Amino acid sequence: MKATSKQRLVKADASHVDGGVHTLHDVNVPPSPTWNYLNINGLTIQIQAPEDAMTATSGTTTETSPAVLAQARAHGHMSPGMVEAFKGVELGCGEDTSNWIDAHADAYKFIHIDKGATQTLTLAIDDENLVATSNVYVDESATLDLCIIESVGFNAQALTNAAVEPTAGQATEPTRASTTLDSKKSAGHNLRLIIGADAKVTLRAFITGTSRTYLHNTGIKLLDGAKLEAHTYLLSGDMTCVGCVPDLYGTHSQAELTARYLVGDKEHLDMNYVARMRGHNSQCDMSFSGVLQDGGEKTLRDTIDLIHGAKGAAGIEDETVVLAGKNLINRSMPVVLCNEDDVAGNHGSTIGAISPEQLVYLTTRGLTEADAIELVSRAVCDDAYLHANRELAQEQVLATTRRVFGEKAVNDLLLDTADE
Question: Where in the numbering of this chain does the SUF system FeS cluster assembly SufBD core domain appear (predicted)?
Fold first, then answer.
């Protein structure tokens, strides 16, 4: 596994910056808008820009300079075609968000997983690297275990552990550091991931929730026979925007994506998933589930786009939402777009609350109504902890559990999973 960094290529458009606050437009816009009065066709958000944003110069696209290409080839063993290929990867949060993150990235990486290799990689977005861009190319027949962690109070040293010799089946870990969170600063990560022919990637992302705005922006291109398994855990957070575009470009490419979320009081989660089905006999399954607590707000746009030429393609999307409180807002927009014959697309959404009968049953077992709601909500954190395959991810999940539910919940979680 090879990695290289480069200097910031462009700056965000200065006209969008006002006193250190940057306005992002057309965030998480779906491919096919619906009625405007539903307030689900994307959003405009204001974020606290990094220190250099107030002096940003204009520019709206990322250009790959000859020096950058030379550096990527020298340190990352990437051909010019590999580096240029990242420019064609579509990201889920939109162009304005993608350009802003690229322009203000504290760490900008090209990472190449060699042909046939089996490796692990950890990327952490922390107080030292609030904004980062990672361009990962997984070569033909390679296998990658990738973990992304939005962490508070930790330092990933160089964002990636690419300098560590890879060992099959062994995860690398970022290094801790004592830092103080500035909750006014926003954070974000662009991930452009290209999965080569017959390569396989397992991706886990842990968004562990802070009082800042976080932009989780992902684009994935799958070539012939490529396979992706992606699991995202969204554990609370003031304002979290998630955009993901799996582009199933290759024949027989496969993608399975899941997301579990917990949204609490005065928290806002906004998601946009778009599966571009291009390859013959490609398959994509997307599943979402989560809990909305009192005062929480969640928006999900999930689209299966069956593009002309994708003969034999099949896409499935489903969502299950538990409404565990009052004064909450849930928006769900499942869509199937079809421009091809001989394809299959299915979508659905289930929304409900804990039934009175279930509450009666739980109270007979000694639980109050508040205890029952907490039990359902905590299940999201429990599941995240069980699937956290990095020590840093486990610690961040426990920290979020402690912040939201208290020390007893952490002790119960550790006790329940001690024998797992």
Answer: 182-379
